[in-house]
Specification:
With 123 residues, the protein is mainly beta. The protein is 0% helix and 53% strand. Strands 2, 4, 5, 6, 9, 10 and 11 form a 7-stranded mixed sheet that branches. Strands 1-3-8-7 form a 4-stranded antiparallel sheet, with no helix packed on it. A hairpin with a 6-residue loop joins strand 4 and strand 5.
Length: 123
């Protein structure tokens, strides 16, 4: 069992930066791939980025490539999402998740969820 708590969200102007953190508890953290999802009102939750359990492989949706970086520190049981050049379209509730990716990171499937942290980007 993994429990996840996000932090680092906030209100920024377009072009600004934020770094989201996710602290995990549970003895099996390092066995999971990790991902960040986001959801805006009226839209489906979407996978933004994912990282393999060993940290050697990453995935990003096209709209954030070159702007977002996902990383993890298994010794600290933490995963991060560094976001730069933020756009209003990045606004949403961001969730970290632990899961599996049997068919590649683009097929990441969450099995444990955090409660979310709000990111709001103003124009």
């Amino acid at each position: 069992q993994v429990q996840l708590v996000e932090s680092g969200g906030g209100l920024v102007q377009a072009g600004g930066s934020l770094r989201l953190s996710c602290a995990a508890s549970g003895r099996t953290f390092s066995r999971f791939a990790m991902g960040w999802f986001r959801q805006a009102p009226g839209k489906e939750r979407e996978l933004v980025a994912a990282i393999s359990w060993g940290g050697h492989n990453t995935y990003y949706i096209d709209s954030v490539k070159g702007r977002f970086t996902i990383s993890r520190d298994n010794a600290k049981s933490a995963v991060y999402l560094q976001m730069i050049s933020l756009e209003p379209e990045d606004t949403g509730l961001y969730y970290c998740a632990a899961g599996t990716n049997p068919d590649g990171l683009e097929r990441f499937s969450a099995v444990h969820w955090g409660q979310g942290t709000q990111v709001t980007v103003s124009s």
